[in-house]
Specification:
By secondary structure, this protein is an alpha+beta fold. It contains four helices and five strands, in the order E-E-H-E-H-E-H-E-H. Helices cover 40% and strands 18% of the residues.
């Protein structure tokens, strides 16, 4: 895990974020999946940050591993809850969300699926409540 200090170029807000690797940061930036916590702009960049060197003591490293596993478990629990209680609509998420909102369609379940940050921002601007949840790969440890 690596922690970066990020800065929004639009509102100048600084915030920290964790990534599994530096390559993961680059991948998310390229896909435009990083956004400002304050203004939701995707115009975000890394800033200088002092390195956080891992302590060499085995006990302290084990504590870090335990924290990491606890976070993964919580995300896994969220994922299971969503799969069990919501309808997967895939790439049609934006269309389905608008249909439910504007047509006042009654649904037995909420929906989940894929949408770009731009689509999510547009939905929110239209008053359609959406959330972004990290979807972890169960295969990786």
């Amino acid at each position: 895990m690596i922690k970066y200090l990020l800065k929004c170029k639009d509102c100048e807000q600084e915030f920290e974020s964790w990534f599994s690797t530096s390559n993961e940061y680059d991948r998310l930036l390229k896909l435009k999946l990083l956004n400002c916590q304050s203004c939701e702009s995707i115009n975000v960049e890394k800033t200088l940050m002092s390195p956080n060197l891992l302590k060499t003591k085995k006990k302290e490293n084990l504590e870090e591993i335990k924290k990491y596993k606890k976070v993964r478990k919580k995300l896994s629990d969220y994922k299971k809850f969503i799969k069990d209680n919501f309808e997967y609509v895939g790439e049609n998420f934006t269309y389905k969300a608008r249909s439910i909102h504007y047509d006042k369609k009654k649904t037995k379940k909420g929906i989940y699926g894929n949408a770009s940050l731009k689509d999510i921002k547009e939905l929110r601007e239209e008053g359609i409540n959406t959330d972004i949840i990290p979807w972890i790969d169960e295969e990786k440890n």
